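REQUEST ID: PR-0412
SUBMITTED BY: lab tech R.K.
PRIORITY: routine
TASK: structure prediction, single protein chain
INPUT:
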Amino acid sequence: MPRWLPRALVLALALYACFQLGSWAFHQLIGLLVNILVAFFLALAIEPAVGRMAARGMRRGLATFLVFLAVMVVGVGFVVLLGSMLAGQIIDMFENFPKYLDSLINWINQTFRTELSRVEVQDSLLRSDWLRKYVQNSASGVLDVSATVLGGLFKLLTIFLFSFYFAADGPRLRRALCSVLPPARQSEVLRAWEIAVDKTGGYIYSRGLMALISGAAHFVLLEVLNVPYAPALAVWVGLVSQFIPTIGTYLAGALPMLIAFTENPWYALWVLVFVVIYQQFENYVLQPKLTSKTVDIHPAVAFGSVIAGTALLGAVGALIAIPAVATLQAFLGAYVKRYDVTDDPRVHGHRRYGEAVVARLQKALHHKKEKEREEGQAPSGEDGA
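STATUS: complete
OUTPUT:
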């Protein structure tokens, strides 16, 4: 047996054990790593506001706290508005449930010639085995729901703590990162960091401004139509329509349409028409002006990046996909060398004209080659004669 074989086997087993240990640790820490990634992008998003406040003499810790306080106030306000709307709808549904049940029983009696009554239906429902099993399952699922809520709150607290430290200690973090790199690499890292801050902050602020405009426009419409819970619905439409690209407007408009339909079916039609018209106005007028200097991404690229981010990281990937792609695009655009495009009709989509030009050039080259061949054969024929 060669002397190196036992050492090679031991080394291979050690490397395999290290790989298995690293894979196990990565799967155990994947949740924490995702939370840190979200916290990093959140810190990049609030970095411009924190930087402006720090430039005016305020401490970075206090500036970061004030920015987070504003974000928390907005988030709590949105949850309270949406919760009040849902609670009001649930209360109205329970209050009107006897009326809905009476109308359904009357329709069944008239259609199928039966003699059902609301009291009999209610007694049969209360005494049914299905309701008893449903109540038992719901009672046993309370603990699971509570654990899920507590886990979500813990994740949210973790994200806020990491993002607070990233934003408050941003200069110290950059110095620590640059201290282990040579000077040439330090400038590249700082440039990439600056691009990431500009693109992420620009994306959040431009989307926030468009959400404000969208919410205000839909609030005016809902108030004119006298749709209930207009402020909560306007906030819902503004946030969902902007932070879910391409199809967010239609998804956000489904809830106001449903609430408007309960008031009057024609109101739902008016809401649908307004949503479609506003989507066109936003895509072709508002969005190009607001995002031309911040996040200039083609809609197809944005939609594809959201799908890819959702496939990789779920809802978290959908939220951070667009700023991540915008940062990568800007970073590559700063280092990829570009050339002037040739003045060819095919560049502008004129394929037929371009094919005709190419065919004409090929024909001219063919005639030129034949003429040169004839001129080259003529002297050799005279010498032979």
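NOTES: The mean pLDDT is 77.
REVIEWED BY: pending
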